[in-house]
Design a protein that fits this description.
The protein is α+β, with helices and mostly antiparallel strands. It has two domains: 303 residues, Periplasmic binding protein-like II (D-Maltodextrin-Binding Protein, domain 2, 3-Layer(aba) Sandwich); 218 residues, Dipeptide-binding Protein, Domain 3 (Dipeptide-binding Protein, domain 3), CATH 3.10.105. It contains 17 helices and 25 strands. Strands 13, 14, 15, 18, 19, 20 and 21 form a seven-stranded mixed β-sheet that branches. A hairpin with a 6-residue loop joins strand 23 and strand 24. The two termini are 42 Å apart. The N terminus is likely disordered.
């Protein structure tokens, strides 16, 4: 750890001097200082532990892993130089690049000597995966990696060392799996699979990822300052280019300056006033001047109705089926804008399988049907089973930040026309929506579903959420999806599992919805992950 890399230091100094005083450097769009916002303070910059969009955005810019997804959604090498997969799909061997370095800011941490850089080695990944799967870490995404040999035993506290992740030498990393998992490469692009340096981790004495003195970068930027006062109004997180990694892998911006805001409304206000270069948003409304702003959109979200399983009326499957059969999506398509499209199935267009949109491989046409006569018959069965001649007024709980509620009023009108009783819409804030759902204070709600990362497995696992209430049998079918050995079997398995979920009528899909990265026109080439909400600015260019 104490070896000085003189040539690298020299390169860093030259790069630092050439960028001094420049906020928007060259004709190639490099050198810009991006002014940005985070929606809430990052909860942790520990990649194995983080699980919120603010943390994910900072981590995406501070760390890099074995693999990454490019702008087309393809999986490509990042810190891996190459990799090989055994014929049985149980062994993955990665050759690491020799030119990826850890950097820790001396001005904030006495742990690292000034000007020292350390290569990222296979042992950093071995340590990271042992941390990820240790029950002491309580990593939120650890269960995704149970395909690794020994992972289940480790999570259950039966073992204190992970058998399935080893280093053959400093730059050769080997994964051994319990069973073939066609989704494994996808998992290695996520933040949970980032490296962690053991000596630095223990040097932080339990503070790893919690402040600007307890983080170390191997990615495009490092954290120079992180200040947060929950009672104050000038909270910031400031990042600078990790120039040592820029030597072999160009990083275009010089700085990222994040204001930490309390809500999306404050971020939108800053963006519209011109103080912010880019922002993520659930909506791109007509209030934006299209000559000043551009956007990246992704149909990554499904909006559907869920029903309180403890509600005597709406826990009835025939009533849920009656509601499902009462929705005429063809008619809805005539009234909605391009932010939405009718959802006949569960999986939105942005989810990729075999390098293509899952919906291209498996059409959702006919998955959810409109049948008014069948809906009325189901309604009558529901009345008989519940022992009621009519049903009381109910309102669909909707988060105001998720979708224009006018479109949900169109749905409620269709339901009223078929079912014959009042179904309204109750619009609440995002925080109140979450509180009401978790406490069970609702009968029917419009519930958004997306994946943790671009994976059909991750997306369908969201339907095991307790508030959706699918059966144990359907949950077991979802669990088997990450045991698929051959990716060519994916489509059939996913299609049948998707149909199982739909047939239980615990979740009634209505719309697929876009999420957005909105930017000033002069900014190009940000990489937006609509699933985690992270934005990677490594290749971002400003031509203002």
């Amino acid at each position: 750890m104490k070896k000085k890399l003189i040539l690298i230091i020299t390169a860093f100094c030259i790069a630092a001097l050439s960028s001094c005083g420049s906020s928007s450097g060259g004709d190639d769009g490099s050198g810009h200082m991006y002014s940005l916002c985070l929606n809430g303070n990052p909860q942790s910059l520990d990649p194995q532990f983080a699980d919120d969009p603010s943390s994910d955005t900072v981590i995406a810019n501070m760390y890099s892993g074995l693999l990454k997804t490019d702008a087309t959604g393809a999986i490509v090498c990042d810190n891996a130089e190459s990799y090989d997969i055994s014929q049985d799909g149980l062994k993955y061997t990665f050759k690491l690049r020799h030119d990826n370095y850890w950097f820790n800011d001396k001005n904030h941490n006495d742990y690292a000597d000034e000007g020292e850089y350390f290569t990222v080695t296979a042992d950093d990944y071995v340590f990271a995966f042992n941390r990820l799967l240790s029950p002491d870490t309580q990593a939120p995404h650890a269960d995704n990696f149970v395909c690794i040999k020994g992972a289940s035993d480790m999570l259950q506290g039966k073992s204190d060392k992970l058998a399935g992740v080893t280093s053959a030498d400093a730059y050769t990393l080997v994964f051994t799996l319990e069973y073939a998992d066609a989704d494994f490469l996808n998992l290695l692009t996520t933040s949970a699979a980032m490296p962690c340096n053991e000596e630095f981790f223990y040097g932080t004495k339990g503070r790893y990822g919690l402040d600007d003195k307890s983080v170390m970068s191997n990615g495009s930027f490092f954290v120079r300052q992180w200040f947060y006062d929950p009672y104050g109004s000038h909270n910031i997180l400031y990042m600078k280019k990790n120039s040592v990694n820029n030597v072999n892998d160009e990083i275009y911006p010089s700085y990222l300056s994040f204001d930490i805001e309390k809500n999306s409304s404050d971020i939108e206000k800053s963006f519209k006033s011109g103080d912010v270069d880019c922002m993520t948003s659930m909506n791109f409304s007509k209030s934006y001047n299209k000559r000043k702003f551009s956007y990246i959109k992704s149909k990554s979200l499904t909006l559907g109705l869920i029903f309180n399983k403890n509600d005597k009326v709406y826990s009835n499957q025939n009533l849920r089926k009656a509601i499902a059969l009462s929705i005429d999506r063809n008619e809805l398509s005539k009234e909605i804008d391009d932010d939405l499209s009718p959802a006949y199935g569960l999986v939105p267009d942005a989810i990729k399988l075999l390098g293509r949109s899952y919906r291209e491989l498996c059409s959702d046409s006919g998955m959810s049907v409109f049948d008014k006569n069948a809906a009325v018959k189901c309604l009558e069965k529901a009345k008989e089973e519940i022992g009621a001649q009519s049903f009381p007024t109910v309102k669909i709980l909707v988060s105001a930040d998720t979708v224009n509620s006018d479109y949900i009023h169109l749905v409620s009108q269709q339901l009223q026309d078929t079912l014959g009783y009042y179904i309204g819409v109750e619009e609440v804030t995002t925080n109140e929506f979450k509180t009401r759902i978790s406490s069970g204070d609702y009968s029917v709600a419009l519930y958004p579903v997306t994946a943790d990362y671009n994976s059909g497995v991750s997306f369908l696992k969201q339907f095991k959420d307790e508030c959706i209430g699918i059966s144990e049998k359907t949950g077991q079918a979802i669990d088997k999806l990450d045991h698929i050995e051959n990716s060519s079997d994916y489509v059939g398995n996913f299609s049948s599992t998707e149909k199982m979920i739909l047939d239980e009528y615990c979740y009634v899909p209505i719309f697929y919805k876009n999420t957005y990265l909105v930017c000033k026109k002069e900014n190009k080439d940000m990489l937006y992950d609509p699933f985690s909400g992270a934005v990677n600015y490594k290749d971002a260019k400003n031509f203002g």
